[in-house]
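User: Run a structure prediction on this.
Assistant: Running it now.
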Amino acid sequence: MNDLKVLGTVVRSHGLKGALKVNAESAGFPELKKDEPVFIQLQGGPVPFFVEECSVSGYDKLVIKLEEIDSLEKAESFIGKAILLDRARFEAPEADASNELIGFTVVDFKKGNIGIVSGFLETPQHPVLEVEFNNKTILIPWVEEIVKEVEVEKKVISVEAPDGLIDLYING
């Protein structure tokens, strides 16, 4: 049997055709390709399923469509299940992938360029980006409602901060 590592956990179904929304354990997960096997822990142990499609949604979320899971009902039966992947597919399995975001430029849809990522805080509620702007630190919650896109090649994180959040740090 392969040496498996948890890629993430199924948190809900996505759409009506059986896609799964998965929260990844950390950023920097390997790209999943069509017909690649992933494993889901079921009663008898890890069961292989083959990827039909996979897209990344944010830094730690995936939408995965697997063969044989072709309805909303089937997808919902996998909520809470771990998605496992061969450990060798992870480049640095023990590395803290959030450090890879340090140095990225953060751009808000309304405010424009708001600074450079200087750190990443892990809080009980959710991770938080530390962004340096004019010798001030802006804290941006890393949640789906705020972080809209991460462009790894361009080293840009696009956010849509709630009204007043950025001003609180700049003017406060």
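The chain has two domains: 4-89, 98-171.
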